[in-house]
């Protein structure tokens, strides 16, 4: 068999999704009260976790902690699923740490990164035994005051920015010359200051880098890792011992939003790393990775009812309930983040057999830019139809934006039952109107007038 462990063929993914849409409609997941919902493919998430684990196991015997970047899908059941699949959690705020803890991810499998950790956050993480990556030299100085007292302190690292350059999307590129993350390694005097920081701190045993996210090509990511590896070697040489014992190489594998194919693969990236940074995998360093988007994106689908259809300036428009509140990047940066739109009829069957019509697919918000797709050739949509927006498992519906006080939608996991049906399980229920009011100062209406 040519297929490696954990990959999902595009056809299988399409069939699984079509079955799930049909079942979601049949089981009433979409209703007048909840005209939008999100689905997560449980088996797909497991398959991606297995693909990641096996890709690194194929190139190294070194211990590897794959710490899922919680920000990509901050849902407790997702973190639990990934933990049971052998992964850990990378957290970057007290909220994300709380989610990882609620999911039962132990401190030994948790890593704290963030450019703005407070004293209290650092103290809590160290107290819990969570590995910390400092962002900058000021944070290291802060840790000086906290660490010597913390007996049996967890591992601490420093994030460096190798300044290897930007990918296709500036806002997703973290290794530019002026990125806000890490110590900028090529700035005047910075490299020497970093080496000295390690020589001064025997407890500083990790080195961290994360070169970017969507839009950063694999060779550029590998260059960033190569630069961090070279720095670790230099520091260990200067220290005369293997002070740095763990390299945290970050996440950032880009995702293919154009089709159901998983490209690039974890295996391709691991192979490229092995070729670009041969010493990385020879067992002298333990490894941490922090993949987010690539583990979840392909396994999430937004479903929304078409409420109305109309024509404006000759352009057909389908007005749906999925818009800016769920697909923030798509709506604000449609050039960088085009999403596919799939058309289903009111029973959840794929719409087919009619010539495609060039149309816009709009969201519900009172904002002219709230368009999921413009000028897209799709089967003619009708009121009551269902549109599906695939590849939204990371950074979309789990990143709800409260525009127009539109509620957070329900999220359901789905699996295939032994008898062939689809079983849904509620991951997060929809936000209620009472909750929206309460979270909007509803308990203190007189706060500005009393
Ligand atoms: C966002 C982030 C990640 C995950 O990036 P993805 O593109 O979702 O894989 C990993 N590490 C750090 C430090 C991050 O900020």
Automatic annotation (TrEMBL):
<feature type="domain" description="Orn/DAP/Arg decarboxylase 2 C-terminal">
    <location>
        <begin position="298"/>
        <end position="393"/>
    </location>
</feature>
<dbReference type="GO" id="GO:0008836">
    <property type="term" value="F:diaminopimelate decarboxylase activity"/>
</dbReference>
<dbReference type="InterPro" id="IPR022657">
    <property type="entry name" value="De-COase2_CS"/>
</dbReference>
<feature type="active site" description="Proton donor">
    <location>
        <position position="366"/>
    </location>
</feature>
<dbReference type="InterPro" id="IPR029066">
    <property type="entry name" value="PLP-binding_barrel"/>
</dbReference>
<dbReference type="GO" id="GO:0009089">
    <property type="term" value="P:lysine biosynthetic process via diaminopimelate"/>
</dbReference>
<dbReference type="Pfam" id="PF00278">
    <property type="entry name" value="Orn_DAP_Arg_deC"/>
</dbReference>
<keyword id="KW-0663">Pyridoxal phosphate</keyword>
<feature type="domain" description="Orn/DAP/Arg decarboxylase 2 N-terminal">
    <location>
        <begin position="56"/>
        <end position="296"/>
    </location>
</feature>
<dbReference type="Pfam" id="PF02784">
    <property type="entry name" value="Orn_Arg_deC_N"/>
</dbReference>
<dbReference type="InterPro" id="IPR022644">
    <property type="entry name" value="De-COase2_N"/>
</dbReference>
<comment type="similarity">
    <text>Belongs to the Orn/Lys/Arg decarboxylase class-II family.</text>
</comment>
<protein>
    <submittedName>
        <fullName>Orn/DAP/arg decarboxylase 2</fullName>
    </submittedName>
</protein>
<dbReference type="InterPro" id="IPR000183">
    <property type="entry name" value="Orn/DAP/Arg_de-COase"/>
</dbReference>
<dbReference type="InterPro" id="IPR009006">
    <property type="entry name" value="Ala_racemase/Decarboxylase_C"/>
</dbReference>
<dbReference type="InterPro" id="IPR022643">
    <property type="entry name" value="De-COase2_C"/>
</dbReference>
<feature type="modified residue" description="N6-(pyridoxal phosphate)lysine">
    <location>
        <position position="71"/>
    </location>
</feature>
